[in-house]
Amino acid sequence: MNINLDVDVTEKENETTLHLKGEIDAYTAPLLKEKLLPLTAKQDHHIIVDLAEVSYMDSTGLGVFISALKSTKEHDAQLKLVNLQERVHRLFKITSLDTIITIETTVRGGN
């Protein structure tokens, strides 16, 4: 089993940024979930997930972000995804998750 995801967490007062590097799939999603979900349970917390260096994501990754979104709504927290590469952004568009998850409009690696 090759786990190919690095999660670098930067915390400020009321904001946490997760810089992800690698791939989000069935093998790496549990690590992402372990790092991300506790942050979403903090009242009035802002979570930014930087996906600039995520080259691949499958439906398992989408599931983690859906769980995170539900948790943020329960705890009045905010989740924002930034710096998505085109192929990852396309997943959110195809599934219409881009209409319920805040995604910074800057898309990297476009045609």
From TrEMBL:
InterPro entries in the cross-refs: Anti-sigma_ant (IPR003658), STAS_dom (IPR002645), STAS_dom_sf (IPR036513)
Domain of life: Bacteria
PROSITE patterns membership: STAS
Matches recorded under SUPFAM superfamilies: SpoIIaa-like (SSF52091)
Ranges for domain STAS: 5-111
Keywords: Phosphoprotein
GO molecular function: anti-sigma factor antagonist activity
Its job: Positive regulator of sigma-B activity. Non-phosphorylated RsbV binds to RsbW, preventing its association with sigma-B. When phosphorylated, releases RsbW, which is then free to complex with and inactivate sigma-B.
Family label: Belongs to the anti-sigma-factor antagonist family.
Record's protein name: Anti-sigma factor antagonist
Gene source species: Streptohalobacillus salinus
Taxonomic placement: Bacteria, Bacillati, Bacillota, Bacilli, Bacillales
